[in-house]
Design goal:
alpha+beta; 10 helices; three-stranded antiparallel beta sheet
């Protein structure tokens, strides 16, 4: 779930050339993220080239805690879709394999997997309603739609031509999760469906990434709630986040195919700071490759990945994570603090 103004402020962050090297000791690097003005920061970590440079928790939290993903889950769901595309079981530009849309005369038959991944399916989904409890997302996650979330999401009509409009939607990602499940099993038994998804997710994503403590939530029909509800420790967040750098696990093995990772990090036609279920930040001056590819979530969950020339004058790859519980009117300050820290770490790589 995401606030209505879907974190566009992060697009303004730049890694300015000639940044001043950090003067703080490694243990103090993350202190700005724990400022009282940023709401409740619960955990933060900075990883350089796979090595933890700094890690900090608020009192009461530690490596033993699992933190809620909120919408950072969307990027993980896209990674799993990519595995099925690589296997030849799904195709980006074929009609999305949703049987409910394939009846004669149904305009939703024009929706492709690419449209869903780009949040441009055109379905009538309301992420944030007025009042807030009226939103489709809240109704599906917490009220009337919990038994079969995908059915509720799939049943919505079009409000725009597929591909014509960007509209951020957690229900869209639930449809992607359902597509994964239907591709893996024909069973309608909730436990069988959930097991098929869980086994696949750990075999192809979490175990190769070294994130073996991940907990997946499912609805009453056995559909993984892939837009919002996955639980990870801070180190596991860092391990999964690192896949956005080059798709490789800690042992160097390729987990995410290079072409799929490139798709996820390529700006979508209708929203240039959003790729395949992944947020993108671009250098303000050059407008070339994304400076930051990130997994962003409700209440201030941020998993930023970027490359640059470090304080030692050498190129490095970074993962910077902040997890917490911050109300909407303070999130701009959290984003600014994250961007400032990133800019202090590196100069943009040539």
């Amino acid at each position: 779930m995401q606030r209505k103004r879907a974190l566009f402020a992060i697009a303004a962050l730049t890694l300015a050339g000639g940044a001043t090297p950090l003067a703080a000791a490694p243990d103090d690097v993350l202190s700005p993220l724990f400022s009282p003005g940023l709401g409740e920061t619960r955990a933060a970590i900075l990883v350089e080239d796979g090595r933890v440079i700094a890690k900090r928790y608020a009192p009461g939290f530690s490596d033993t805690n699992r933190f809620i993903s909120w919408s950072t889950a969307k990027t993980m769901t896209a990674m799993l879709i990519g595995e099925l595309v690589s296997d030849g079981k799904l195709s980006l530009d074929a009609p999305a394999p949703v049987a409910e849309w394939q009846k004669p005369g149904d305009p939703r038959a024009a929706i492709t997997l690419r449209h869903l991944l780009h949040m441009a399916a055109g379905l009538k989904h309301t992420e944030v309603g007025d009042p807030v409890e009226a939103s489709d997302t809240n109704q599906v996650l917490f009220a009337s739609g919990t038994h079969s979330m995908a059915a509720r999401a799939i049943a919505q009509p079009l409000e725009a031509k597929p591909g014509a409009k960007f509209e951020y939607s957690s229900l869209t990602t639930i449809i992607l999760s359902e597509i994964i499940t239907r591709t893996l099993t024909e069973s309608r038994d909730a436990k069988t469906r959930a097991k098929a998804y869980r086994d696949f997710a750990f075999e192809r994503l979490y175990t190769p990434a070294g994130a073996t403590g991940v907990v997946l939530e499912f609805d009453g029909a056995g559909t993984q709630i892939g837009g919002s509800l996955i639980h990870l420790s801070l180190p596991d967040f860092a391990r999964v986040g690192a896949l956005l750098l080059d798709g490789r696990g800690p042992d160097g093995a390729q987990v995410i195919a290079p072409d799929w990772l490139a798709f996820m990090k390529t700006p979508s036609p209708r929203q240039p700071i959003y790729g395949g279920q992944t947020w993108l930040n671009r250098f303000a001056k050059t407008g070339k490759e994304p400076a930051i590819a990130s997994m962003n979530g409700h209440l201030g969950q941020y998993v930023l990945t970027f490359r640059g020339v470090g304080r030692d004058g050498k190129p490095h790859a970074y993962v910077l994570i902040r997890l917490g519980n911050t109300r909407q009117d303070r999130l701009d300050s959290v984003e600014q603090a994250m961007g400032t820290l990133a800019a202090e770490l590196v100069r943009p790589a040539p």
